[in-house]
Specification:
Two copies of one chain form a homodimer. Chain A is α/β, with parallel strands linked by helices and 337 residues long. Chain A is 44% helix and 17% strand. Chain A has twelve helices and twelve strands. Chain A binds a DNA duplex (30 and 30 nucleotides) through helix 2 and helix 4.
Chain lengths: 337, 337
DNA sequence: GAGCGCTCTTACAACGTTGTAAAAACGAAG
DNA sequence: CTTCGTTTTTACAACGTTGTAAGAGCGCTC
């Protein structure tokens, strides 16, 4: 900075009042003579004063900042290539900016990183944590809870604990996919699931399989994928090799579905005529296929915003019981099924 | 927090010394009796003390935080769907964590948001800014410079100004694409450019066109795209309608290239036999096509890390002349050309 | 016109840290 | 046994806010 930033003191001197009065004007507390208020505002204008957040934080013990933590065992820094995290970020940022709160991005992929996150929050460098946790065995939710850090999760924790979270009814999502495929006359249906150590994957899978059973199909060929394009393409290959008679497949996310559609094409299967494909998420890859992907929409941005809302709420009134918000999926029918 | 966090005072009391001594132990300043040092460390252990970053910031005027600003006129919150920003984020986060610095994510898509960013930094809420600016007319670099905020840019500023930045030789990248297409015998070459109000797009385009001219092709059919899958698919359509004889196309990013390949397929053109395709970036879509996309690699993660390095360096020793680091592109030959 | 209750303003003490100047401890030298 | 450096430790003042308790101003009532 060229010149030291103007302080309350400076404004007070210019306006001819005390620091406290200026402070009250800035914070909009009542009991300030309107005339004086104008004088102070002028002085603020004149000096170009802007309150120092750090000093303010020291006394209010609020930073106006929350940690956005991407957690999970395998999450290297390449998580950001997954469109899912981009959508979460977008939803969070969009919501927080309305409340003048800023997110600090943190990765918790190692034990060291995890303790760093806990320290960061214990120190009060952020008011709370938004935790996007992929693996169900992630220890971070418990760690943060132990440290009494206000926290909100995306997706329910691996084992029950008193913490706020948003989630979606993934089971219902799987069911919708099954219902749609059966309703459109498919009878040889397989699935490519997500990694089964992720709760959401389990739920999508069981929701799908349960519904198929209810429709009279007790057995559904399944291959476990890894939520990547590659793994989707590969899983489809395996599925097709073993069950060439397949006429439909439910793929547990859109990226894998894109890969699966590619495999189908190169095997000479036309989508949706020969094989119907239903994806999951309704993220950008769903629109980057032809035919456009029929998929189960997960409103990630809205869910992320709700998670941020939950956290801010619990910061507003501490000591509340944790809350959960569960979103409903929605089937988006496009060309692929 | 259940109990108030332990403070320097508490540690001092337990260790039977003064606050200042504890502070010196914590910060590793010399001139502390080794024996006493051990006592203090024990006391720290015992109390579970961890320094309060906010209080520290107030006096040191350093926060250990930088703003990661995604700027540019059109950048809504959907920027995060573009894999590019994910890669930048990954590179920045990866580098900063080594230096115990944390990024605060900010969007600067409106005038209001821009002044908020400037305020945030003027207030000293962050030590500096990493600015990813897409549009060349973006006013933010100048605003930050005026406010004497330490800053490093991804991509050179729209008009020359004394600021550090990283960039790539996009012109050379365009040339590489041209050279490769000509070397592999293509003679009817077109291009889908990026938005031409982005400097990088201009450079890729002019680099490509210049090189083609040098190879004896004075005219290159071109359509301007918008860096999205859709716009790539659409541009390819237009190009093909007007120039059905095309046997190669250079597409200014991989996402558009993916769309373009799709259009080519549905027009019955086989890649690379009938039409060769070269993309740009070497981002995830390049591996989510078949054939795999031949593309010009932009080392986004390394560039982002370098940008962060530039900023930290300028924070370390202020008053240095601004620096720039220019990366070289690299042609990655795969199946599509 | 003294006393009382308003409203509005001001001084002052936090918040938890760092840095500096002064004080204490301790040898070594005279 | 004093005196002088040197090293180690301490007390104290910042840093820029906010909140609280005390104070000033002022119009009312009795």
């Amino acid at each position: 900075m060229t010149k030291a930033a103007p302080t309350l003191e400076d404004v007070a001197r210019v306006a001819g009042v005390s620091r406290a009065t200026v402070s009250r004007v800035v914070n909009g507390t009542r009991n300030v003579d309107p005339e004086l208020q104008a004088t102070v505002r002028n002085a603020i204008e004149e000096t170009g004063y802007t309150p120092n957040r750090v000093a303010r934080s020291l006394v209010t013990r609020r930073t106006g900042t929350v940690a956005l933590v991407i957690s999970g065992a395998g999450s290297g820094s390449d998580v950001f290539t997954d469109p899912f995290f981009g959508r979460v970020t977008a939803g969070v940022v969009d919501f927080l900016r309305l409340h003048a709160v800023h997110p600090v991005l943190m990765l918790a992929d190692t034990d060291a990183a995890r303790t760093e996150v806990v320290e960061f929050l214990r120190q009060g460098s952020a008011d709370g944590a938004l935790l996007v946790t992929t693996h169900s065995a992630d220890p971070l939710p418990a760690l943060l809870l132990d440290a009494s850090v206000p926290v909100a999760l995306y997706a329910r924790p691996g084992r029950p604990m008193p913490v706020s979270y948003v989630d979606m009814d993934h089971h219902a999502g799987g069911r919708m996919a099954a219902d749609h495929l059966v309703a459109t006359g498919r009878t040889n249906v397989g699935t490519v699931s997500g990694p089964l150590d992720v709760l959401a994957s389990q739920d999508r899978y069981s929701g799908f399989v349960d519904a198929m059973a209810r429709h009279g199909f007790p057995y559904v060929p399944a291959i476990e994928g890894g939520f990547t394009w590659e793994s989707g393409a590969r899983a489809m290959q395996l599925l097709l090799d073993e069950h060439p008679e397949l006429d439909a497949v439910f793929v547990a996310n859109d990226l894998m579905a894109q890969g699966a559609m590619h495999t189908l094409n190169s095997y000479g299967r036309s989508v949706p005529v020969d094989v119907a494909v239903v994806g999951f998420d309704d993220s950008s890859p769903a629109l980057a296929c032809r035919p456009l992907l029929t998929t189960v929409r997960q409103p990630v941005e809205r869910m992320a915003a709700a998670m941020a809302g939950l956290l801010l709420e619990s910061l507003e009134k501490p000591g509340q019981r944790p809350k959960s918000v569960i979103f409903e999926p929605e089937l988006v029918v496009r060309g692929s099924a």
